[in-house]
Amino acid sequence: MLALYLSCGAVALCAALYVYMRRSLTYWQRRKVPVVTPTTLFGNYGPSILGKRSLSEVAQDIYNEHKDERYVGTYFMLTPLLQINDPDIIRSVFIKDFQDFNGRGMHSQPSYDPLSAHLFILAGQPWRNMRVKLSPTFTTGKIKYMFDTISECANHLREHVDSSVAAGGGRYVENVRELVARFSTDIISSVAFGIESNSMKNPDSEFRQMGHRIFESCLDVNLRHLLLFFGGDVMKTFSIRCVPAAVHNFFTRIVDEMIDYREKNGVERADMLNLLIKLKNEGFLPPDSNDTAEEKNRHSDVNESNGTEARLTKLSGKDIAAQVFVFFVAGFETTSTTTSFTLYELAKHPDIQDKVVAEMDAALAKHGGKVTYDTIMDLPYTDMCVQETLRMYPPVPFLTRQAMVKRQLPLSDVVLEKGTRLMIPVRALHYDPQYWDEPLRYDPQRFTEEAKKARPQLVYMPFGDGPRICIGMRLGLVQVKMALLTILTRARVAVAPDMPKEVTLDPRCILPSPVHGCRLVLSARK
Ligand code: HEM
């Protein structure tokens, strides 16, 4: 009898589960939204969940198959995800109707996971307050203020290239992806934490190890990334943090110690931690004499109107830890990916490399042989190359937004429930032949002022757009150009013979990571 009850119970459970799944997977159909047929267990993201294709490549496949639709309903397992293909709708979501779409749909749980309360994850008023506070940290004036620290890291990179070239008798082979990851780690740990991580000299430095732990492709890390987007309730129920315990403990300990040390010893240093400690003690940062007129205006707007609440609230030690943590996470992998892919493309295109190097030599001659902030700003062609790299290899290949209220999707009659997630397939837009002639070809000329004006808005967004645009964009570009200048003024780059002809991205990594690294031959310049 018991066996009969158990069998009936199991059948009823399976039937209920089946009905629930079928109902979940007809969410878009019921709203008359064009839909990509999902599979029962994984929705439309099976290849990505199974580690066969990256999330952004799946979004790109969906885009290519459905690009006549302005938006298309998909499912991440059972979670509805509306993919937006139309740049006009994207513009409304990012800019015009931003107040209703200001979240990313990620989960912050400060009570047991203080590092998750950072700018990238926060939404609504807490995000707004934090953004108002942190924006003055990234102005031109503040980047100039940190420039000497960046230069010091570049000196270590130069010494490394010089000594390796000399040791190799004039040339050597290096995985530049790892090399520039070490350089970026040194910069971010130095400008954000005020700590010399010394990764250039010691590839196993603690900061470099943490970088590996955060982005390594393993089940633990991949699961946390997915849960951050799609499993807030699971994270809450089981008190799961956004990063493994070792990473959490490292960052919280180090920031506590640094704040304590600086406050006790009255230490001031030209870095972000210094600025954040000011935000902790005074609540706001005064404008800098080196800021542009636009930055100064924005600053006074912020302090006089909507910034009042933000101005009065002071940052806590935990807030500081979360923000420097996100500067590290958002700042090191993005810049090192961009630098290494630019070097790779220049190695494949010697004519473009010649033009870049000639421009660098001319800029150095103009600035008395010194690498200053102005030297870096005097590299317009190099900048076009970097922009083209960011088109072909966007370090953040998809973006998300979340409806903060029940409302219509702009320029449509679809009603979105509060909490609905939107997916913006950045990489797919960057490769659409409708906007980019021969998209597989590396061509910096796409970024002349005329070419940029001729293109529709919001088909190119390596830094996102609107009020949530990357806060570290200018700092990131300075870092990338500094690395390029340091390497290319010492050595010529060519693709190593053992590098495959085409780049294959690791399908298990959330950010683009070439499976075979990026092996280049560096030869002393004549
Ligand atoms: C080439 C380098 C970089 C690229 C391509 C990049 C790209 C991006 C993108 C696409 C976003 C999302 C924007 C959106 O949703 O509209 C973002 C946000 C962000 N980035 Fe960057 N980033 C870079 C460098 C940096 C650096 C150096 C830092 C800090 C040191 C940084 C800190 C952040 C932060 C804190 C956010 C969250 C902003 C917010 O939500 O208000 N990024 N970045």
From TrEMBL:
Pfam families registered for this protein in UniProt: p450
Cofactor names: heme
Source superkingdom: Eukaryota
Residues the entry annotates as binding heme: 470
Keyword tags: Endoplasmic reticulum, Heme, Iron, Membrane, Metal-binding, Microsome, Monooxygenase, Oxidoreductase
Biased composition (Basic and acidic residues): 293-302
GO molecular function: heme binding; iron ion binding; monooxygenase activity; oxidoreductase activity, acting on paired donors, with incorporation or reduction of molecular oxygen
Coarse class of the protein's main subcellular location: endoplasmic reticulum
UniProt topology in membrane: Peripheral membrane protein
GO CC list: endoplasmic reticulum membrane
Gene3D superfamilies: Cytochrome P450 (1.10.630.10)
Region of interest called Disordered, as start-end residue ranges on this chain: 286-308
Subcellular location: Endoplasmic reticulum membrane; Microsome membrane
InterPro entries registered for this protein in UniProt: Cyt_P450, Cyt_P450_CS, Cyt_P450_E_grp-I, Cyt_P450_sf, Insect_CytP450_Detox
Family designation: Belongs to the cytochrome P450 family.
Protein name: Cytochrome P450 6k1-like
